[in-house]
Amino acid sequence: MIYDIAIIGGGPAGLAAAITAIAQNCSVIVFDAHGFSPRLRSVKKVSNYMGIPDISGTELMDKFVDHARKMEIEIIEEKVISLQEGDDIFTIGTPSGIYSANAVLLATGISRSELIPGEKEFLGRGVSYCAKVDAEKYKGKKVVAISTVPNAMDEIDCLAEHCEEVYFFPRYENVVPPKHKNVKVITDEPIDINGTDKVTGLHTNNDYYAVSGVFMFRASDPLNSFLPGLQMRGKSVLVDDQAQTNIEGVFAGGDCTGQPWQVNRAAGQGQKAALSAIKYLSRRDIKFNDRSVTWGNE
Ligand SMILES: Cc1cc2nc3c(=O)[nH]c(=O)nc-3n(C[C@H](O)[C@H](O)[C@H](O)COP(=O)(O)OP(=O)(O)OC[C@H]3O[C@@H](n4cnc5c(N)ncnc54)[C@H](O)[C@@H]3O)c2cc1C
Asked: What are the extents of the domains in the chain?
């Protein structure tokens, strides 16, 4: 099946976009990696969301998720690890599936992470974001695993089960000791990934590790890593006033497009990005189930 719109991110922006699009009879699929906005869920009290003056972030987010589920929006609770542009079609990859869509909407929230030098260059040629997908390719080889989040231990275990040795760089505090003996915890700072046509090693501030693969695990990967042509403004996705990015068919909304970081803005922008995506599909003459699209006061 080719979905009309694939939405990456299931926070306020992504779910507002999905609710808008499904109400206009589009086929929509939402991907969310970390339990629907850990960011909003961390807020003890939200007091500026209109109509609901006193609510916790988790309660508010649960209401958004309930609404989306009631509208029978298809939600895949997995991280998007690849996004490829084809002829007018996008292919979206998660650890356990491949999906196709005519348009893509980015709603991934803030990404504070920086790409490591060499990461973009060697993505798919030794750099990977998913052990479950790629570990087998490194059977009996040495690899590096860099994680900025504590919840990637199942990925580290998966690497340990396939690879000869895993040099594990946890970039956070209170590290739980890995359960496999072939995982070595290293506290150096990773500096750059290098190689020729494929990865051959990683420099740190102290040493050099000769490896065939480098696995990166973060809460949110910088979007321009898996969509290399995407134009950014600092760490935010650059969009025009119609929420269109520089890549035709790719739209963005919410915190990933910049400040102010607020739920109202995120939801509003998600909605705008969905309506722009629908207009784009309309221009391409892609027929929805029922063409009763309404554009407000135009
Ligand atoms: C401490 C704190 C207090 C705040 N207080 C308020 C407040 O009082 N009022 C207010 O309005 N706002 C507040 N905010 C801001 C608010 O939480 C954000 O503006 C809002 O959550 C942004 O929504 P979003 O959908 O753009 O991004 P997010 O809520 O960050 O959602 C993005 C989602 O995308 C997912 N994702 C990312 N990458 C991928 C991928 N590759 N594949 C699949 N899924 C992916 C993430 O896991 C996440 O679930 C606060 C934030 C913080 C941190």
From this structure: 2-112+221-283, 119-217
